[in-house]
Amino acid sequence: MRRFHTASDEEIKRGETTDIYFVRTKQVLEAKGLSKTHVVAEITPGELPGGLPWGIICGIEEVAKLFEDVPVNIYAFPEGSVFYYKDYYGVREPVLRIEGLYGEFCIYETPLLGMLCQASGIATRAARVKKAAGDKPVISFGIRRMHPALSPMIDRAAYIGGFDGVSSLTGAKAAGVKPVGTMPHALIIVFGDQVKAWKAFDEVMPEDVPRIALVDTYYDEKTEALMAAETLKDKLFGVRLDTPGSRKGDFAEILREVRWELDIRGYKNVKIFVSGGLNEEKVRILSEAGADAFGVGTYVSNAPTIDFAMDIVEIDGKICAKRGKLGGKKEVWRCPECLIDMVLPYNSAQPKCPKCGGKTERMLKPLIENGKIVAELPKPKEIRSYVLKQLEKVELV
After folding, report:
1. Residue 248 pLDDT > 70, yes or no?
2. Which site among 56, 147, 234, 274 is 20 to 30 Å from 359 CA-CA?
3. Fold match flag (9-120+304-391 vs 132-301)
4. Which residues of 337-360 are buried (b: 16+ CB within 10 A; e: fewer)?
5. Which residues have a Cβ under 8 Å from the Cβ of 362 and sit 6 or more positions away?
6. Residue ranges per domain, the chain?
7. Which of 175, 132, 182, 154 has its CA nearest to residue 295?
8. What CATH number has the domain spanning 132-301?
9. Residue 246 pLDDT more than 90?
């Protein structure tokens, strides 16, 4: 008997997390001798949440593991790629293509979409927050708002999207980094005294853990920040402000006051870390007000999913499509300099960039060949670097 309401790796791999109508579809096709029908199916996004101009594809590695040993061919955008709802000319762009016998893979549509939709939503929001923060560190704090079974996926996607660190143990392992964090209000409340708690933290934690004091438990943030500085002195790396919305204060003004009071007393080296209900706009405002680092939680972990859908566009070599979709196998060409995409019929000639006239490249690259993973699956750190380079070329609006 399972303890938690989560599917195991084996259940996902066996297709047991699918929708029942795909199981019934498989049964009908087998009964009518159509299970060997060869199809080309494409995964395309719906309009992005809030009309966003771009997204970040995430979850490709899990898709590769899902289809390993399934006799299909898959071509996909590299994980971490910017993608668009529609290309330069207004054509909806496929981010992944599956070729194979429909009866062999139809039951995997549900988990495939789930892996892409949620992780891409999180990576997209993380990328937007990181772009707003610029060179200042952003840490993922959002796993407490989501089911714990999802913590590795959430923090990995946030890290890939550009975050500089993650708080969860399993998330850090998935991202290939060390978990980072400060201290909770609970630690201070248990001691009943800020100074005692800060001193205890300093005495117990190893030297490589930054001394970042939480400074809004009992008193005014400015007062507690100065108390922390006077208590830990040169050991104090930073202070964290986690001002809740219930205080109804002007967070940027509070931050400016703390910065001023620290600076005027000779504590210019003390960093200010802010958290609590942050989004990309608040990060931008607080960065301008003097924040040095950010902890972002629910806004990213609870990001709206990307509405990917799978549609058959060829059956046994014949072009087909349901209404509202374009039939036929397609290729996506991208200018690596301008990040402009063009969707063309598969056998079309390689186009030049309509903006700079430069050379374009194929975005749908081999991932699976007859059930074997043929693509290199890069480490999260490499994917994150790829994302950050693309973020230099796109705008938030």
Report:
1. no
2. 56
3. no
4. ebbbbbbbeeeeeeeebeeeeeeb
5. 331, 332, 333
6. 9-120+304-391, 132-301
7. 182
8. 3.20.20.70
9. no
pLDDT category of residue 280 using cuts at 50, 70 and 90: very high
Q: Quote the tokens at residue 46.
A: 């719906």
The letter for the amino acid at 362 is R
Select from 164, 158, 40, 34 the least CA-distant residue to 103.
Answer: 34
* d(C-alpha 329, C-alpha 315), whole Å: 10
CATH architecture of 9-120+304-391: Alpha-Beta Barrel (3.20)
pLDDT at 224 over 90: yes
Q: Judge whether 149 and 4 are in contact, CB under 8 Å.
A: yes
Cα(334)–Cα(225) distance, integer angstroms: 50
The contacts of residue 174 (CB under 8 Å, 6+ apart) are: 152, 153, 155, 156, 380
Question: Which own/partner pairs from 62-65 qualify as long-range (CB within 8 Å, at least 24 positions apart)?
Answer: 62/115, 62/119, 62/153, 63/96, 63/112, 63/115, 63/116, 63/367, 64/367, 64/368, 64/373, 64/375, 64/377, 65/373
Q: What is the pLDDT of residue 41?
A: 98
Q: Which two tokens stand for residue 333?
A: 């060409």
Closest CA to 199 of 226, 167, 233: 233
pLDDT in tens, 52-70: 999 999 999 999 999 999 9
Cβ atoms 327, 313 nearer than 8 A: yes
**339 to each of 206, 243, 342, 373, 393, how far by Cα in Å?**
45, 39, 10, 27, 7
Question: CA separation (Å) from 48 to 67, 86, 121, 124, 214?
Answer: 26, 10, 9, 10, 37
